[in-house]
Amino acid sequence: SLADTFYSIGLVMRLCQLLSVLEILHILVGIDKSRLIPRFLQITERIVVLFVVINSQEEVQGKYIVCVLFFLWNLLDVVRYTYNMLARTGINYLPLTWLNFSLCILLYPLSVLAKAFAICISLPYFETFGTYSVKLPFPFAFSIYFPYVLKTYLLVLFTGMCFIIQNLFSERKAHLEMGNFKKKRS
């Protein structure tokens, strides 16, 4: 069943990841108090890996790494969305707050490693089939070799991971200190 993950729930995952773009709108409107750039990077990473790397290469869809990615993404989202829903209703459940701001620090780097692994697995297929590689005609005489774009994206992915982890630590510190302060006052 691990190899059939994409075939079983790929459509639902693509729909959910497209809907996750609404998180950016929620931040812009003020519904969510998260920082825009880290959330934008996280959503963009998922969309690029899901739609560009996995969805476009049928050979990659049957790999075990797809199951690992979906599991990590869903685990993070279940905790985050449950925390956000309760926080919007005014419920502050300290164990869930701790889990939300601690689990992501552990699982996000694992998620990035899984994304990088999926990209590395897909590189031979992009090289063989030439998917998304473009050669522009004369007067430009310029070509874009997509495996090079993906290799460059790997560098951006790991650089972005460092920025996002730093943001996750600062969010964790702010929320957990605020939670302890409220607890001590009551």
In short:
This protein has 186 residues and is an all-alpha fold.
Ordered list of secondary-structure elements with their pairings:
Layout lengths: L4 H15 L2 H8 L6 H19 L3 H4 L2 H25 L5 H36 L4 E2 L7 E2 L1 H40 L1
Antiparallel strand pairs: 1-2
Helix pairs in contact: 3-6, 3-7, 5-6, 6-7
Give descriptors for this structure.
186 residues; mainly alpha; two-stranded antiparallel sheet; 2 strands; 79% helix; globular
What can you see in these coordinates?
The protein is mainly α and 186 residues long. The protein has one domain. It has a two-stranded antiparallel ribbon with strand order 1-2. Helix 5 runs antiparallel to helix 6. The chain is globular, with a radius of gyration of 19 Å. The mean pLDDT is 90. It is a multi-pass membrane protein. Keywords: Endoplasmic reticulum, Fatty acid biosynthesis, Fatty acid metabolism, Lipid biosynthesis, Lipid metabolism, Lyase, Membrane, Transmembrane, Transmembrane helix.
